[in-house]
Amino acid sequence: MPRTTLLAAPLALLALAPAAQAAPPWQPAGALGAAPSLLSVDASFGTGGPGVLFGSRDDRESFTRSVLLRQGVLAPLGADGAVGPQRVVASVDAPPVRYAGSRVVVARTQVVSARTPSVPRTKVGWSLGSVSASGVTVGTPRWLHTGGLSAPPVLTANARGDALLAWVETAPGAGTERLWLALKRAGGGLGRARVVRSAGGITGLAVDVAPNGRFAIAYQRTVTGSPSRGTTRNVEVRRGTVRGGLRAGVDTVGGSIGMAHADVAVASTGRTTVVYATQDLGEEANERQRVLSAVLPQSATGFAEAKELDRTARAARPAEEVRVEADETGAATAAWTSQDSQGRNVVRVATQDTRAAFGEPATVAAGDLRDLAVAPDGRAALVWSGHTGEGQDAGVLAALRPVAGAGFLPAEEVLGDALTWYPSAFAALPTATTWLVGATRAAQDGAEDAVVAARR
User: Fold this and answer.
1) CA angle centred on 313, ends 307 and 319, rounded to 5°
2) What is the pLDDT of residue 34?
3) What is the number of H-type helices and E-type strands within the chain?
């Protein structure tokens, strides 16, 4: 992500709102130290009180055991961007989620055997904690299952405390994955886990839970058939409610040409929106990336046919991140990385109208998407790592949407340094008047990585 000036040869901003007046500058607000280097960063806020700032880092001692373990660096994060006392917690490889009051739910993993280093046998579970200005506390894990794990679990929770934890168990051999799910009701304890999909390869996991407890899990499932039938790859969804459990049946929302990067947003009304980028497999890209959306309208029993939002101008695989977030009305905003006719990666964004249909996507700027945050009232912040006209990194940039239904304002540089690389970034909207952006910072002069938060 990263470097000096903002877009030396700027792209035209399509359908973006003009700035009404000069915006106040972004200001450095806090930092999270790293020893060893941080790999990724994220933040989670609830209603009132500080949020939780999370950084993932390698456990250096794990190299001696032929398997790489991860630790979490946790600290309180104020709405003004101030970072409180930090602590390192073992067995934390995914961002914690803050919910009701000062409470926090944390996904936990612990390697128990590394005979197969690429898929070590790992215990998966979760624990509860809390956050205050004096620090973050994390309780004893409740372990749920032990099996092969090739990617961190995914975790989400709503403001009242409904939560769900999902992960994919991988066994040696192709097409032997199992999708696990555990639920926590608001006011209740941590639930047990169950298998909710099996028989096939399962990748690209994404989860969301609405304020009233409706939830959805999106993923790609690959099934290898006989030579005559070939291999089928589809993006599927499992739905349900935290109190009522999983709904019977599987929704197939669209096909994939190889691999899919997906995200899902669920509204209390029942509207569920899936957006995914699909790319071909192999050493080189031979097909154009496609971005598709599928919507389950309010009160409907099934998803409408998936519709194409975007297609790259040439064979390419630009998207590593796809984001979709919904406001309190259910209207979703989607963002992804595409590629233009000149071969430049560009960030694109699209917003649903009152009929749940996405409008024409807008090109925001050259760069690679890092995060999208949407507040219940429809305000939004889009964050990406920028590129100059010569393809060089250009720091961390953001575009803001101050009012629901309006376009995004022009891009602004938030963090930038000619000798610094920003490989991970997040956006957060902790209050009605505050915007936060954080990033991992890796200087070329050998300085340790750190997380820098900037506020508006």
Assistant:
1) 70
2) 63
3) 0, 34
Contact indicator for 139, 56 with CB cutoff of 8 Å: no
Q: What is the pLDDT of residue 355?
A: 87
Determine the pLDDT at residue 444: 66
Please say whether the beta carbons of 278 and 234 come within 8 A.
no
Q: Residue 212 CA to chain centroid, in angstroms?
A: 21
Q: Rounded distance, CA 263 to CA 432, Å?
A: 25
Q: Tokens for 52?
A: 């939780």
* 304 or 116, greater pLDDT: 304
In whole angstroms, how far apart are CA 256 and each of 199, 221, 259, 273? Answer: 18, 9, 6, 17
Residue 257 tokens read as: 């040409």
- pLDDT tens, 127-171? 999 999 999 999 999 999 999 987 899 999 999 999 999 999 987
Tell how strand 154-157 and strand 51-59 pair up: unpaired
d(CA 63, CA 70): 11
Assign residue 112 a region (left: φ > 0; alpha: ψ between -120 and 50; beta: otherwise).
alpha
**Per-residue model confidence (pLDDT) at position 8:** 28
- 121: Cα separation from own chain's centroid: 25
Which residues touch 144 (CB under 8 Å, ≥6 apart)?
124, 125, 126, 165, 180, 182, 192, 193
Q: Do residues 226 and 169 touch, judged by C-beta distance below 8 A?
A: no
Determine the 3-state secondary structure of 65 from DSSP. Answer: helix
Please report, as a single letter, which amino acid is at residue 104: V
The pLDDT assigned to 25 comes to: 82
Question: Domain spans of the chain?
Answer: 47-136
Single-letter code of the amino acid located at 448 = E
Enter the pTM of the model.
0.90
Mean pLDDT, residues 96-106 taken together: 94
Distance (Å, whole) CA 214 – CA 430:
23
Q: Looking at residue 447, what is its pLDDT?
A: 53
